């Protein structure tokens, strides 16, 4: 292996570090080895030009990805297919005759009151598989020096397949939430312009802020994420809803049903940029954080994807169609959503791996599979907060 001389680089670098010079252009091509897939003819010793350079150390890239998806996994079951969700309508009150008794009048207690019940059936699942390894019995032994290296290699194959599976499942969980966000906004707005008003279930925080502070009517949603006044106002509005959702109401679900969501069944998911902005621009300025702190939330780095720029126009964007809204819509400025645990569910999550040994060619193939059901229930409480 050739040693490349870099004295002409490290001397100027030292001057940059100690402040002797400004930042200058640097050629790092002689410093960083970006790796090659296979050896080429130059990878021989410098004396005989024949002996191949030996591998001194093997590093297996084996890092497990944890994911960022919100925790909406629910229970599962082994037998049967569909999930039936039974709901009851709230009965009406009637006059109490106890304090209006009349002489010789009959008060019949044997009246049958039929319960008003409805049921929804969920019978869809998703499934996919990742063919992640074909491991040969003999050839791989020739590629490593020890059984430990071979074991690390096989483990690395499994981990990378698992990481791929985690990323894909994370994407599906977010799509279940995104589906509900799209339907909720469309239920409140239809085809109307989002920036012109605020809905009941889809709360336009920027519109409400401009109504409260007309002098700031030119504020854009991306600039709002760094404006303490908007963040303070948005935190105030969002902070009102946990208790509102605990109260029985027809207003906060698309089905118009009387629903309430106890504190221990409430989920709040918000964009990381909004939560971080509230922490930095608000909490750093106050003595009592509880006055400006947001409700406890799970944060996500983006709703659909980061784009190629990680700009808030990409991270806060959802561009999707749903079963209810078949024409794809673009929604930008999505800040967060607050919902009942039964509004968005992932059930019967089943991840497993199958393998097959080929005795003739002596190799083993493996497939990582996952089945799950991703459900939305428009009859349960679901609130969207956005800025448009």
Would you spell out the secondary-structure blueprint of this structure?
Blueprint: H1 7-17, E1 83-88, E2 117-122, E3 126-136, H2 147-189, E4 202-204, H3 205-212, H4 221-224, H5 228-246, E5 266-271, H6 272-281, E6 298-300, H7 312-315, E7 318-320, E8 329-331, E9 334-340, E10 344-358, E11 363-376, E12 382-386
Parallel strand pairs: 4-12, 5-6
Antiparallel strand pairs: 1-2, 3-11, 5-9, 7-8, 9-12, 10-11
Helix pairs in contact: 5-6
Task: Tell me what the structure shows.
- By secondary structure, this protein is of the alpha+beta class.
- The chain is 26% helix and 21% strand.
- The strands form four sheets. A five-stranded mixed β-sheet has the order 4-12-9-5-6. It has a three-stranded antiparallel β-sheet with strand order 3-11-10, covered by helices on one side. A two-stranded antiparallel ribbon has the order 1-2.
- Strand 10 (344-358) and strand 11 (363-376) form a beta hairpin.
- The chain is flat.
- Residues 29-37 have low confidence and may be disordered.
Class derived from helix and strand content = alpha+beta
Rg on CA atoms, Å: 30 Å
Total beta strand runs:
12
Poorly predicted spans = 29-37
Spatial order of the strands forming the largest sheet: 4-12-9-5-6
Calculate the terminal CA-CA distance, rounded to whole Å: 59 Å
Q: What count of helical segments does DSSP give? A: 7
Shape by Cα distribution? flat
Strand content: 15-25%
Instruction: Work out the helicity level.
Output: 25-40%
| Mean pLDDT metric | 78
Sheet with the most strands? 5 strands, mixed
| H/E element sequence | HEEEHEHHHEHEHEEEEEE
């Amino acid at each position: 292996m050739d040693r490349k001389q870099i004295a002409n680089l490290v001397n100027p670098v030292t001057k940059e570090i100690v402040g002797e010079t400004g930042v200058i252009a640097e050629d790092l091509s002689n410093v960083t080895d970006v790796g090659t897939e296979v050896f080429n003819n130059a990878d021989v010793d410098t004396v005989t030009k024949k002996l191949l350079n030996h591998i001194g150390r093997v590093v297996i890239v084996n890092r497990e990805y944890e994911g960022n998806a919100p925790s909406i996994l629910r229970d599962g079951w082994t037998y049967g297919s569909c999930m039936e969700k039974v709901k009851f309508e709230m009965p009406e009150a009637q006059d109490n005759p106890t304090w209006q008794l009349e002489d010789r009048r009959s008060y019949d207690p044997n009246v049958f009151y039929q319960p008003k019940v409805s049921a929804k059936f969920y019978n869809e699942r998703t499934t996919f598989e990742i063919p992640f390894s074909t491991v040969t019995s003999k050839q791989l032994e020739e590629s490593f020096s020890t059984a430990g290296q071979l074991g690390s290699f096989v483990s690395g194959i499994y981990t990378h397949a698992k990481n791929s599976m985690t990323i894909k499942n994370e994407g599906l969980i977010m799509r279940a939430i995104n589906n509900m966000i799209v339907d909720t906004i469309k239920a409140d707005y239809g085809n109307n312009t989002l920036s012109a008003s605020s809905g009941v279930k889809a709360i336009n925080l920027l519109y409400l802020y401009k109504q409260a502070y007309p002098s700031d009517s030119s504020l854009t949603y991306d600039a709002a994420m760094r404006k303490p006044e908007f963040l303070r106002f948005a935190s105030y509005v969002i902070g009102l809803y946990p208790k509102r959702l605990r109260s029985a109401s027809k207003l906060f679900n698309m089905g118009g049903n009387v629903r309430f969501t106890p504190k221990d069944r409430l989920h709040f998911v918000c964009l990381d940029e909004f939560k971080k902005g509230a922490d930095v621009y608000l909490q750093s300025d106050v003595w009592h954080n509880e006055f400006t702190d947001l409700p406890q939330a799970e944060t996500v780095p983006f709703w659909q994807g980061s784009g190629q720029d990680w700009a808030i126009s990409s991270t806060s964007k959802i561009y999707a169609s749903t079963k209810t809204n078949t024409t794809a819509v673009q929604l930008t400025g999505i800040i967060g959503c607050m919902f009942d645990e039964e509004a968005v569910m992932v059930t019967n999550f089943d991840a497993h791996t199958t393998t097959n040994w080929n005795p003739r060619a002596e190799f083993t193939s493996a497939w990582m599979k996952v089945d799950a059901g991703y459900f939305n229930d428009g009859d349960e409480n679901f609130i969207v907060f956005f800025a448009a």
